[in-house]
Amino acid sequence: MRRHPRRRPGRRTSALLAVSALTGGLLLTAPQPASAANLITNPGFETAGTGDMPYCWEKSGWGDNDFTFETVADAHSGTKAMKVELTRRTDGDRKALITESAECAPVVTEGKQYDLSLWYKTTTPDASLTLFRHDATAGWQYWTDLKTLDLAADWTRASVRTPEVPAGTDRISWGVSVYGTGSATTDDYTMEQVADPIPDPECTGTAAECADGRWDVLPTRNPVRSMHSVVLHNGKVLLIAGSGNDPEMFEAGTFETALYDPETGDYKAIPTPKDMFCAGHVQLKDGRVLVMSGNKGYPSADGTIGYQGYKDSYIFDPQTETYSKTNDMNDGHWYPSATILGNGDVISFGGLREDSTGSVTADLWSDEQQKWLPTWQVNQTWSYWGLYPSMILMQDGRLFYSGSHVFGNNIPGTGSAIYDYEANTITQVPGLQRKDERDQSMSVLLPPAQDQKVLTIGGGNIDSNPEANRLTDIIDLKQPDPAYVAGPPLPQGTVDLGDGPVPQTGDQGKMYVSAVLLPDGKVLETGGALHNRADPVFETSIFDPATETFDPVAVDPEARGYHSSAFLLPDGRVMTTGDNPGNGSWNHDVSIYTPPYLLKGERPAITSVIDTEWTYGDTQRITVDRPIAKAELIRPAAVTHSSDPNQRFVDLPLSVDGNNVDLNVTSNPNLAPPGWYMLFAVDANGVPSVAKWVHLDGPQALSTKDASAHVHSFADAPRGKVTEEGAKRTSQPVSPTVSGCDRHYGSANVCVPTAFPEEVKATTADRCTWLKEHDYGRLKVNGKDDPLKLDRDRDGVACGKGDVRGRR
């Protein structure tokens, strides 16, 4: 029996139809069996059941709507078909599904795919093929919507290939959902298992490379100190540095951006109008890059004034390769969030204001008006979300704050929350482990986005500066009351504590984590450091969402800590750049990772894309040069500081006819916000094609305002603490040492930690020894204060000979 999903408070609901999983009773005719190949029992509704539904079929649905279920004589074959009609709808849907019983629901095998088909007529554009799956532990649950049915006055065949069956699934149920006024009449269902994949190909590299991939350090170095990386829809990479955390460049007004072409290896200098160091950025739906805020000023020499964020905002145009100014934001946002919404708008939270205090103002970019809206037009909770808070768009348009952030402690509460912009409420989400040690952890919406699972990896705390952790946490946002559960610990690698790499021990993990979605449906995590801008960790692994396990692979030979980036290129490789340790230096070397899937012989190719302009609920045809198992859209990276909340992998269910493949595009723009995407085709061995670029935009499939009704309403009323709009206030007090750096020593790009690692004794000699081992060099003392007692002889130079000779 399909249970009624939870709904948001205030929604009207109607009683769920009572259904009976027919396991016995009198049948009017002998059961129509499944054929040898077809796994559907009673596929044409010819066998009657004990009630008003055919044998092995049940009514289902939810919401406030008027509906009818009817067995009609207007059949594609035989004498009967099933008609589901909505005559009035406020929300919800109605569907006819295979009965969820051991007698009726088809048995499936983990990791296999199945070809589904049916014949249909529709009078509404709002109908889709919907799947449920039976988990051996959790029972029956919604799986996914695979295909939107086009309007069809005459009998039309729809076919689609399922994703690989998830682990723990033993049966599935499926049918047609109607979620708009009108009807869908269906008949002649089929379900067949896809043939087993071809044998594994021969390895084209060494045995180690085919198992773990390969890293190459490029001969050409990145010319700028870039901490912002954006993959553009022409395949080039925008590398934004601004002043590059170099106060001398800031004082000189020298701001830099480079445009990297992976095909030629060339870098092009781009005139940069403002210091975009530690700005926010997001790709708009037309492929231009919105860059918000940045650095208005470095901290004062005496440490009494912190970083300052300006209100300016710019757009980078990949066609003209130039920046242009927009209107100002309502507040400064140094280190802001930046999340694109399902309608193409962009919302931004957090960061530091022009006076170095924390911004409590939400800013909203209107796609329609192409400007930042005034504060009074934007819902406000007056909450301080911190620095680079990871705000991930959910399938129903709400935002999930994952708990990943930058600099010090997490926000008050559980450290994770769901924000409902329309209701203007914040609901605490439980379960995040050691929420105040998730500084520069990384969070990703796991493949596929339809599963609505988020993985959070690692982290530390630059205030207390403990050893970074190995924690991972996973949350399923499709659950009625979502909560994090502990994931597997990060694998350990080596750490360089100043005398060369040594194996990690105990619970040593890493912060400054990078995580990249790969076209085979897995996640590469790489880079990191054990402490605040110190002690690089050399460890790389691949996370498999299907098994929730990490597989250690080849390791990036370059240090990749603070201000590093990792991102997917359209050819399926991963590029890493940057590293800015506390001594103020910069790593200009660039590494390229070739995953094992590129060493498995010849890769499939997308030989044609009929149309590169896609709309929601569409069916798009491509041709390939060999059979493929799956296809997906991957949103290109816009990453900085272990943060890219817009990164997502959207599954495209297939309808296969030889080398012609029809791709079924989601009808929900919250799953795949409008914009340019990399389209990959992947064969049965996990080998991806080179990506083709497609542009997703256009009208939503739904004819009502409720853009996610047919996707069901999960996490609608989580039981965590709920807060409404707070009292209006100007800002949040923030310490000038928010970056974990004591500005009494050295220049502004040098970070002497306010708290040294726990193993460093609180003596001048031990602290100075640690600084020397980490290549800090001579440090001028700024002003008269010496809070860390590094200038005991008061000569204005920290850790000089007179400071450490005989001193404790």
TrEMBL record:
Pfam families: Glyoxal_oxid_N (PF07250), GO-like_E_set (PF09118). Residues 257-583 form the Glyoxal oxidase N-terminal domain. The keyword Signal applies. Residues 1-36 form the signal peptide. The keyword rRNA-binding does not apply. Residues 603-695 form the Galactose oxidase-like Early set domain. Gene3D superfamilies: Galactose oxidase/kelch, beta-propeller (2.130.10.80), Galactose-binding domain-like (2.60.120.260), Immunoglobulins (2.60.40.10). Residues 782-808 are annotated as: Disordered. InterPro entries: Gal_Oxase/kelch_b-propeller, Gal_Oxidase_central_sf, Glyoxal_oxidase_N, GO-like_E_set, Ig-like_fold, Ig_E-set. Keywords: Signal. This is Galactose oxidase-like domain-containing protein.
